[in-house]
Amino acid sequence: MAIKIDSKLTSKKLVSQIERVFELSGQKILSIEKSWKPEQGTPVFTVKGKYTSMGWTEWTQGFQYGSALLQFDAMGDDRFLEIGKCGTVKYMASHVSHIGVHDHGFNNVSTYGNLLRLMREGKIPHNADEKNFYELALKVSGAVQAARWTKLADGTGFIHSFNGPHSLFVDTIRSCRALAVAHQLGHMLMGEQDAKISLLQRVVEHALNTARYSIYYGEGRDAYDVRGRTAHEAVFNPVSGVFRCPNSQQGYAPFSTWTRGLAWALCGYPEQLEFLCAVSRSSAADFKSVGSVEKYRALLLKTALVTADFYLENSCADGVPMWDTGAPNLHRLPANYLNKASDPYNKFEPVDGSAAAIAAQGLIRLGNYLNANGDKKAATKYVQAGLSVARTLFSEPYLSTDPKHQGLLLHSVYHRPNGWDYIAPGQSVPNGESSMWGDYHLRELALLILREARGEHYLTFFDSTK
């Protein structure tokens, strides 16, 4: 295990750091709100400390306005509620009906979902019309994402990525919260001849096939089958529905592990375990593709555990990973670099702070699930690991303290193979920049821990009363 875990760290011990995070966070949000021009598109990542747009898919605008809602949740400042609400109403409608992406959970649950959650919790006043508006948006969003469906040879299927019907992205497991929320709201996808398609069944089958084709278990699948390794993309023949090969769009290679993809899985599977706890027993028929609810639960847990363990074993001592475990210049780093704190300013390969923020939340959620289900020893390991990673990110050199820098979490990498990330003069690899997803997930991580320290509701988008 490369990560050095502080077994004595608690959520309450992180409160002062978290308060500083949100103090800085508020400044960043206001800076972006003041300077960003909507006609520029969606803010994606920073260049020289200023947010810029990068067209690939429109998947980050929900993080922009969702961040303001998380800021309000943490600090109670109504200015940020107004930014989040107004931005959601004015700019997010096209994302609800966007048929070209697999990112509905990122865009719409981060905005409409946060607003509905805040109303359910009594943090904003109950308003029937607003509630209906948020719920309708979430219902439509979940159904639209579920409609991006590729059927496989065994009769199951998956939500295909923006690349097309051949492409299963590991990222999407984190975005499946859109289908889960819509299902809990009583919605379904209507198909040809009025076919009623269960959103729950599509969540189940997508999670099943992501686990089957994107995650490795050390069971001899191929020559690079290492327990917990993930492939960014699984490629299928869309005509026959037969699996062809692993691939990577943003990682180094199909047979290495892009660590943000690993983090999406590590966060997405524990969240699906939480959703499963909130699903009505009357939905048992929706699990037929995996045999039973309990078999599905075991699959989710197995996948969460192997990805968590791989993350712990392949990150630096402070909990931050390199951007890819097979990056070509890792051999030029010191032989024991994983046993030391990460160095975002090294000359050979970038780290990815955003992967750490996503993974830390997944570790804590996995630990909390295990604790609730009686495995306290394992629970302690994962919760303490998540808190240890969080402590790293809540301080420099990962926390952005420069008031002129619009990012909150530094050393985020977007697309290394395409060369999209800014490299500053005098540096040989990207560092010192931020991303919308990294900033949002740092805030979500901080809020998850802060709520526990305050004794507030557990941070979830799933209604446990259903």
Describe this structure in words.
With about 475 residues, the chain is mainly alpha-helical. The protein has a single domain, classed as Glycosyltransferase (Alpha/alpha barrel). It contains 15 helices and nine strands. It has helices at about 15-35, 60-75, 80-90, 95, 105, 110-120, 130-145, 170-175, 175-185, 200-215, 260-280, 295-315, 355-370, 375-395, 435-455, and strands at about 45, 50-55, 150, 155-160, 165-170, 190, 195, 235, 240-245. The strands form four sheets. Strands 5-8-9 form a three-stranded antiparallel beta sheet, with no helix packed on it. The longest helix has 21 residues, at about 15-35. The radius of gyration is 21 Å and the shape is globular. The model has no long low-confidence stretch (mean pLDDT about 95).
Q: Give average pLDDT, whole number.
A: 96
Strand order of the largest sheet: 5-8-9
**Poorly predicted runs of 5 or more residues:** none
CATH architectural group: Alpha/alpha barrel
Query: What is the N-to-C succession of helices and strands?
Result: HEEHHHHHHEEEHHEEHEEHHHHH
Gap between N and C termini: 39 Å
Overall 3D geometry? Answer: globular
Compute the gyration radius: what is it? 21 Å
- Quote the CATH topology: Glycosyltransferase
Summary keywords:
466 residues, 3-stranded antiparallel β-sheet, 15 helices, mainly alpha, 46% helix, Glycosyltransferase
